[in-house]
Design goal:
- This protein is an alpha/beta fold and about 325 residues long.
- Helix content is about 40%, strand content about 10%.
- The protein has 3 domains: about 45 residues, no CATH class; about 45 residues; about 180 residues, Ribonuclease H-like superfamily/Ribonuclease H (Nucleotidyltransferase, domain 5), CATH 3.30.420.
- The protein is built from 12 helices and 7 strands.
- β4 and β5 form a beta hairpin.
- The protein starts with 12 loop residues before the first helix and ends in a 23-residue tail after the last helix.
- This is Transposase InsO family protein.
Length: about 325
């Protein structure tokens, strides 16, 4: 097994071998060898005995695992734990409750069998998620739209409660549908680079093909301004992305268009995860009193995301992977 001696150990494998050879081959007394290598007589005797029996290969660390574990969970029960994890996709606590076991025991079994965490598995299949990252900026850009309900003047139900939120809706707009006030939605069009995670987002009024195509023209210009040449674009199968206008806009820029498999948003997961982060850290991060207040806070949050927010997947902000993000070399 690999050498795992702790930092305060007197002897490394090379030191053990030298000690053993002094005793076995040179005939040193155990006490003299122990004093020379600053260890105990018992330790010197142990390494000398191992050297006599197994030679130099025995100077490494041995496993501390016992030869027998009479109280270990039976193999049949371990198989039941693994089966429940694969079929039901339950966590350790729920499996433990179902089998009347300790959650810590179930966790050790799952670890022993190298079962991936639920957060790292595909919900549909239960298999480990295959993560990827492109080799260079611009090789692939993820594009998607997120729909957010507008906030009425005075605050919505998240800020002031459901009753007051409905009253604010009624006061904000005269539009009605089936007797209920309609204040509309904002559509966040996002383009995010696969390699750098650099994001460009605009809040627009709809997700029609004209709107999506015009957004991409501005997004492409933004990426070009920071030195990122877009080669491919990945979208879902929304109508705006299947339109001829969208296809021709990408063709004119010599960009390859890829679409995800139907009902498989995980393929476009980087932009989906960005939208989740956006919702948690900006859209619903605090009780805004109006839609204008929320939108006013968005440019600052997006700048923070691109330049300062630590991204765990890349080990720093997206700006650390974009050489000319600030434009000082243009």
């Amino acid at each position: 097994m690999p050498h795992t001696t702790h930092a305060n150990a007197r002897l490394t494998p090379a030191g053990r071998l030298a000690l053993a050879r002094c005793v076995v081959e040179d005939g040193w007394p155990l006490r003299r060898a122990a004093e020379r290598f600053q260890t105990s007589v018992a330790t010197a005797q142990r390494w000398a005995s191992r050297y006599r029996t197994h030679g130099a290969a025995a100077m490494g660390d041995r496993s501390s695992r016992p030869h027998r574990s009479p109280r270990r969970t039976p193999a049949r029960r371990e198989r039941r734990v693994v089966k429940l994890r694969l079929i039901k996709r339950w966590g350790p606590a729920r499996i433990a409750g179902h089998l009347h076991m300790e959650a810590s025991t179930v966790h050790r079994i799952l670890t022993r069998y190298r079962m991936p965490r639920l957060s790292c598995t595909d919900r549909a299949t239960g298999l480990a998620v295959r993560r990827y990252e492109r080799a260079r900026p611009g090789e692939l850009v993820h594009v998607d739209v997120k729909k957010l309900g507008n906030i009425p003047d005075g605050g919505g139900h998240r800020a002031v409660g459901r009753y007051a939120g409905v009253r604010n809706k009624q006061a904000t707009t005269a539009a009605r549908k089936h007797g209920s006030p309609v204040i509309g939605h904002g559509y966040l069009h996002t383009a995010i680079d696969d390699r750098t995670r650099l994001a460009y987002t605009e809040i627009l009024t709809d997700e029609k093909k004209e709107t999506a195509t015009a957004f991409w023209a501005r997004a492409g210009a933004y990426f070009a301004s920071v030195g990122i040449a877009v080669e491919r674009v990945l979208t879902d199968n929304g109508s705006c992305y299947k339109s001829r206008m969208w296809r021709e806009a990408l063709a004119r820029a010599q960009i390859t268009h890829k679409r995800t498999r139907p009902y498989r948003p995980q393929t476009n997961g980087k932009v989906e995860r960005f939208h989740r982060t956006l919702a948690e850290e900006w859209a619903y991060a605090r009780p805004y009193r109006s839609e204008a207040e929320r939108r006013e806070a968005f440019p600052g949050w997006l700048h923070h995301y691109n330049h300062h927010r630590f991204h765990t997947a890349i080990g720093g902000p997206p700006a650390t992977r974009v050489p000319n993000l600030s434009g000082q070399y243009s």
